[in-house]
Specification:
The protein contains six helices and 13 strands. It is an alpha/beta fold. The strands form three sheets. It has a nine-stranded mixed β-sheet, sandwiched between helices. Strands 1-13 form a two-stranded antiparallel ribbon. It has a two-stranded parallel sheet with strand order 11-12. Helix 1 packs antiparallel against helix 2 (about 115-120), helix 1 (about 50-70) runs parallel beside helix 6 and helix 3 packs parallel to helix 4 (about 205-220).
Length: about 325
């Protein structure tokens, strides 16, 4: 149940970007070949009932995203993985109804481009049973290389509620078990919902877990940038995901509730190697955006960025970004 963006108080946070229906993709720099070094990238996608626009958008934009990621990575080192999360649907691998939220490992990290494309194109709209969703458990699956199986391996969420990690028996027979190994490692979450573990209930424990997962990702060996693309409106989700991204050195990006701008958001994440100065080669220009005003989710995003005449062709990321919603 998505609404137009509510008005929020001015917030200061590391690396915030809000993309309107006409995305400011001109702020993304031209990628230098190999600038991110060897790169691992995992898409963590919400496939619950309200995510139709986002799923359509990522499928349509996938060829360009792959091209950009391959260019940014070094040689033929790009590896991609795909994880989704849903609930209250039939288990596509083992049959039987899954009467709870769950995580689905579609593809562990691999260099096989055909498998990346097939995994993204296999994303289908499910149910979810209502907000919140198990994005925190999907992130934990990626960060900690959780094992899964066709029938499901049980894990507990932050509040002790059990849930399953299922996995494609052909492409991911042991779940998300391939270790991270890139010079740049990026996990891209795509959701419109608050994180709530396996029980569809949001609590302080869920909030704390989301934020701690960002810290776990940032201190992981090798480090993982958690970059969260959010198309919802819930203030609790925005706060949690901002802190999650900031704690890992990643970025938080908000897009319109219809999912438009998703490909541009992911492109921005790739262009900055996950965010916060993570470029191995090339240059990122640090900008103090204290005067930045963003009117998100309208037909046009309003950007007031003083003294940006020299930005063309240069990388940009946003620190201490302040943003307002304009009705």
């Amino acid at each position: 149940m998505k609404k137009s963006l509510h008005a929020y108080a001015v917030m200061a946070i590391t690396s915030i970007l809000v993309i309107g229906a006409l995305s400011p993709v001109q702020l993304a720099h031209a990628v230098n070949p190999g600038q991110c070094g060897s790169m691992d990238m995992v898409f963590i996608v919400d496939t619950t009932g309200s995510m139709s626009g986002e799923i359509t958008n990522i499928k349509a934009g996938l060829p360009g995203l792959i091209t950009q990621a391959q260019l940014a990575s070094q040689g033929n080192t790009l590896r991609v993985g795909v994880i989704s999360f849903d609930g209250f649907v039939v288990n596509r691998y083992a049959g039987g109804f899954i009467n709870q939220d769950f995580v689905d490992v579609k593809l562990p990290l691999t260099t096989n481009q055909a498998d990346w494309t097939a995994a993204i194109n296999s994303l289908t709209l499910g149910s979810g049973g209502g907000f919140p969703e198990a994005s925190d458990q999907a992130k934990a699956t990626a960060i900690f290389n959780r094992v899964g199986s066709a029938a499901g391996v049980a894990y507990n969420d932050a509040n002790g509620n059990p849930g399953l990690v299922i996995a494609d028996p052909i492409k991911a027979p042991t779940g998300f078990s391939v270790p991270w190994a890139g010079q740049t490692n990026i996990a891209v979450l795509i959701t419109d919902a608050t994180s709530g573990g396996y029980d569809d209930v949001y609590s302080g424990g869920d909030s704390a877990l989301v934020q701690s997962l960002g810290t776990s990702a940032g201190t992981h060996v090798p480090p993982i940038k958690m970059s969260d693309v959010f198309s919802g409106t819930d203030p609790s989700a925005i706060t949690d995901l901002m802190r999650d991204a900031s704690n890992s050195g990643g970025v938080f990006i908000q897009i319109p509730s219809d999912g438009s701008g998703l490909s541009a958001a992911i492109m921005q994440i790739i262009d900055t190697c996950g965010g916060e100065g993570n470029v191995i080669g090339g240059e990122i220009l640090s900008i103090d955006t204290s005067a930045l005003l963003v009117a998100g989710a309208g037909a046009n995003a309003l950007w007031l960025l003083p003294m940006l005449g020299a930005i063309a062709g240069t990388g940009a990321y946003f620190t201490r970004a302040k943003w307002l919603h304009k009705e």
